[in-house]
Amino acid sequence: MSPHASEAAGGRTARRPRGVDPRELGFTPRRPVPWLAPFLLVSTGIRTLLAMLFGAYLDKRELQNSLDAGIARQVGPDGGLWLDYVADLGDGFNATYSVAYLIAQPELEVDGHRLPRAQTLVMGGDQVYPSAAFEAYEDRCKGPYQAALPVTPPERPTLFAVPGNHDWYDGLTAFLRLFVRSRDRHFGGWDTGQSRSYFAVELPAGWWLLGLDDQSGSYLDDPQLTYFDRVAERLGPESRVILAVPAPTWVKAVDQPTAYDSIDYFVRTIVAPTGAQVRLLISGDLHHYARYAGPDRQLITCGGGGAYLYPTHKLPERIEVPPRDTLARRASASHPYELAGRYPDAARSRRYAWGIFPRLPLRNPGFTTLLGTLHTLLMLAMAGVASNPEGIEQRLFSVPLMVMLIVTMLGAAFFAKPPSSGGKRHARHWILGVGHGLAQIGLGAAGTWAWLALPFYDWPWPLPAVAAAVLYGPVIGLVSSQLVAAYLLVAGAFGVNVNELFAGQGIEDAKAFLRLRIDPDGTLTIYPIAVDRVARDWQVNPDQSAEASWLAPRQPLRPRLAEPPTTLTP
């Protein structure tokens, strides 16, 4: 055994790496996912389509009825509990590991608060990107968390995970193999505590943590409801519930009124009859921190575990939950909720939006290359028509020109509102999409005019095509990417392509997670911990003790509170 090896709890052995080489780490640190890469766009679209068409056939939740249906219990040595919540974590290494590193430290001092390491860790969904391949889980999720907490500390922290839509892309196969196991129930230094893709955890002082799996927003299966029926037998009027769900449907219901129906059904039929109160709903999926405060509960989105930043300046200031225009025949009474906190703040979020111009081509070179290729074909088709006299030649050349014009317009329209996307299809999507398509055609016409003014088109064939590919393509691709950036900025102001505006930038900074404290008297305090800038340069940790993280940032991370702590009293 290497002298760098150390014994972990439970007899496991973890060899500490001597460098940052993947062969030393046991996994490959990955770069952030280039979300606008052409092949990724196509493959993600296909996976989404397959999930929509065959999701019911791939659904393994009914099969989980054969698995143990245990109810976990978590309590700290002082009768209270520290609990962490992190979501959307399986993306690029720098952001994911920065958050994992902070979570794994024995103690954090944040704005004068001393916050010890949590005894319970909840992963709130999308533990991997872009798809649920086992290798991706190893490199983008388990590997970084293993490096952050390589062995189990004496307090034996426990991990629970909620599956998100990206975890569902393979029908939950890899997720179940990683988080729901009958042997070797470890995830780095955390014990895995669940026996299904959903779970119930009894917490101190009458608090309960319930994690739901709604199969990417479809429905709650019968075995899951039966499981929670048994959990409900242990709830009473003195019970208070934290509900961890895959997506913040309270926000999505503004655009898609049926989005909140599954959660409302669960609360109305499982929790409410017991007299228990759902005091807190937490979710990831949107990659920021946002808190809505209402008369009876807090609704918190905290998807800042590693994925690209999602804006906060387009969040509604006020929502009604459940929405009044839901189609559900039976629904709970609607209550107003006000946006009480967000990170990053609206002004900083707007400033981030303007970064689309430099970041789009830098983060997505494949997308820029695709634009250059399409515009080169469009230019050659336009040039063929413009340089030939009327007659049979013009009719022949007009065929590829019409094809390119149709491709350009359809591509811009679908980019503004893909057929697979949910929610309301407003006229503004079509107006902006058609306007963007016309702008790209106008750019193509201008590029054709400029190209015909140069001598290259008169060279003998195939030299004009070669010159276009070598000279025209890269230039027009860059110019076209700036036109796309301008479109995204304008469309984002109208609530269209907001996700693409930020996904195209791949912003790694502005990450967040929650650290919750349940006191023995039942008081719950929520500390939203923000990291303005993640680390980008790592070194082997000088601390070689068994529990110490394998890698440490060369420049210290500086966590702070995204807003003052929120306290829920019994």
Automatic annotation (TrEMBL):
It comes from Micromonospora echinofusca. Residues 1-25, 547-570 are annotated as: Disordered. The chain crosses the membrane at residues 35-58, 367-385, 397-416, 437-457, 469-490. InterPro entries: Metallo-depent_PP-like. PANTHER family: CALCINEURIN-LIKE METALLO-PHOSPHOESTERASE SUPERFAMILY PROTEIN (PTHR34211:SF3). Gene3D superfamilies: 3.60.21.10. Keywords: Membrane, Transmembrane, Transmembrane helix. Coiled coil: none annotated. The keyword Membrane applies. This is Calcineurin-like phosphoesterase.
